[in-house]
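Continuing the batch. This is chain 6 of the set; chains 1 through 5 are on the previous pages. Same settings as before, nothing changed between runs. Recording input and output for traceability.
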Amino acid sequence: MSTEKCPKCGGEQFVCDDNKKITCEYCDTIIRMPANPSDDSSSVGYSTTALVASVSPIETTKKSTNKKIGIAIASILAVCIIGGYLAWKSTGKKVVNEGQGTQATGAPINPSDVKATTTEKKSSGDSQNINTPAPPSITLAQGTSIFVRATSDISTNRVRAGEGFSAVLDEDIVASGKTVAKRGATVRGVVSNVVPGNQTRGTSMSLKLTNLTLTNGSKSITTDEHTTTAPTGASQGFPDIIIPVLIKENTIIVFNLKVAVAIDSN
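Output for chain 6:
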């Protein structure tokens, strides 16, 4: 009498030491076969079937596991391939910078191609600038007279050399048949010189214009000086009095252009 352990369920049982087939009492698994198969021919077929049945679930499990592993590997490869393609496609859409960068296909740009394109655009722009005619201009000739009217008193008692003054045009200024400045437009000037008088010499004051308001803007101008000299006190019967220069409001003063002025006709 001895004990045998079932290889499948692990159950132990007592068996006789004879040459017979032994089957597990718990799971019917064959524990031992006869030494001489001819002693129990039916057991041979039964045992073969039992062994095949016991092995088949293991082999099936291995096949299922291998299949799952294969599917997982294939999924990972597919994700990597798709991700790589999307990254390559995104990189290929970089903006092309002048002289360097990548084209839409992702291939390097030839700097000479970029330079040639830039040169063509620049040449095209230059040709457009050349073909665009400059606006016509009108010229106020040297010596053109400008009539202005004082809008306030200008007196040597109140102004000094270098101080500014303003007045208005008393007449339209016409050039090439077109009115370029209208009557009443503002003109600006400066007191260019003041010479104090004495008993034998009268006080003098010189003015000149510096800016003219046109119909389409304003223009810096250069005119001659308009000088006004006051009488001496002696000539008026007052030898001890120095008479100041006074240009009263609404006095008309005439200036002449010393330098010609080009005016846009638009």
